[in-house]
Amino acid sequence: MSEVAKFACDGHELEFPVVEGSEKERAIDISQLRKQTGLITIDEGYVNTGSTRSAITFLNGEEGVLRYRGYAIEELAENCDFIEVAYLLIYGELPTQQQLDTFRSSIASHTKLQDGVPAFFDHFQKDAHPMSMLASVVSALATFNQDSLDPTDAAQIESSILSLMGNLPTVAAHGHSKITGAALNHADSELSYCENFLHMMFSKSGKEYKANPLFVKALNLLLIVHADHEQNCSTSTVRMVGSANANLYASIAAGVGALSGPSHGGANEAVVNMLYQIQADGGDVEKYVKKAKDKEDGFRLMGFGHRVYKNFDPRANIIKAACDELLEDLNLDDPLFDIAQRLAKVALEDEYFIKRNLYPNVDFYSGVIYRAMGIPVEMFTVLFAIGRLPGWISHWKEMHESPTMRICRPRQVYTGANSRQFASIDKRG
Ligand code: ACO
Question: What is the per-residue pLDDT across 363-397, written as a single tens digit (0 to 9) for each?
């Protein structure tokens, strides 16, 4: 007999099924609770709520495990490029060579933006955040792709997936050009996904640009480790919006909006801003480690600790090696890197950080890598969005393919005024 959880309330004893996942994690299915008792559950921030069953990503924060479709992140990072991982996430299996070639060339054929899209950038403010530009343009893409908006039509969904995968780096490069004033280079479909993105951002007109292979490698790794992280805030947003049968562009635009928040995708930006702050204050890292330990102070070391990973962040382990390799190769004379390296060393040897399992997370290293590559700090979250896109798409697609899909509609416990007598405007105050 399958396991049940017993629940006593109002003199009744009720039983709810216990659902078990493929990795043995268990959950109580309370979907019939309100029907049977009139009660709902409350769980602010959804810290204890499973919103769905999903076969895409498994993570175990205690043991530092992250797998996409069953494959360890370490193996994928070692053996695949981002497009191969994107295929795995979106379609569920690693591609054959032929499937991969077709997927690559279909994405490459969508790197050029449709006429009219670049004009959006003429009207954005130069000092606007590129994440706001990204969200607006992704939303606007629906108006340029009106033949691929039906979330119940497989061919239309496929078309919107390819257009988003191809368009997003180009839209991001337009945002970079807008905020920096650098010339925008047209996409080169002969280049790999990462090389093309670096080319669009950094080629100088009239000069041949060859991306540093270590930049390409680091960018590829960063996109892979950011590609999915199960039901995080932006992915849950994409699912929530998609559950109303909104089209893929509208759903992804909402995900970009969620990711733009400093509590979510903005942490790598916060790392570099913190390093600036330490530099401006004389570069004394011990002082900031002390501040972080002081409960009265409220200061936290950005890029340290993680809500889910309590022993180590497997993504940070992967990109730390790329970060070290890059910094050694570039041998840049940048005081921020020196501060970053000293800060990590001091914190990792400090009793406070050791006791609480606080170690540099993925954002610490990604912030440092992006800076070493010459990417402006405002663009960091945009790069996160490029990496997260296949994860968002795969969750949206999984939800639409589920026979049990329903519109997401949480409930609430109302705490406002009880029924009141309406007062006409002359009788108020
Ligand atoms: N600096 C100093 N102390 C810290 C830090 C930090 N960065 N992070 C946690 N602590 C301390 C807390 O003060 C607390 O100490 P106490 O037990 O003495 O009260 C203890 O470590 C546990 O901290 P919590 O806040 O309970 O941990 P939680 O899981 O809620 O927070 C979080 C995780 C939000 C990531 C936190 O570590 C933090 O704020 N880090 C800095 C911001 C950051 O880097 N965010 C990016 C996360 S990675 C990502 O989103 C992809």
Answer: 899 988 999 999 999 999 999 999 999 999 999 99
- Are 136 and 120 in contact by the 8 Å Cβ rule? The answer is yes
Ligand 1 neighbour 357 (Cβ under 6 A): no
49 CB neighbour count, 10 Å cutoff: 14
In ligand 1, the atom with minimum distance to the C-alpha of 313 is 48
- What 3-state DSSP class applies to 204? coil
Prediction pTM value? 0.93
- Residue with the smallest CA separation from ligand 1 atom 35 is 306
Is 369 near ligand 1, meaning CB less than 6 Å away? no
Q: Which of 359, 131, 147 is nearest to 262 (CA)?
A: 131
Q: Residue 318: CB within 6 Å of ligand 1?
A: no
In contact, 232 and 296? CB cutoff 8 Å: no
**What does residue 15 show for φ and ψ, rounded to 5 degrees?**
-125, 135
Alpha helices (H) in 117-180, listed in sequence order? 119-123, 130-144, 154-180
Residue 9, SS3?
strand
Parallel, antiparallel or unpaired: strands 26-28 and 12-20: antiparallel
**Residue nearest ligand 1's atom 29 by CA:** 307
The pLDDT tens digits for 133-160 are: 999 999 999 999 999 999 999 999 999 9
The residue whose CA has the least distance to atom 14 of ligand 1 is 356
Evaluate: CB of 343 within 6 angstroms of ligand 1. no
Query: Which atom from ligand 1 is nearest to the alpha carbon of 306?
Result: 35
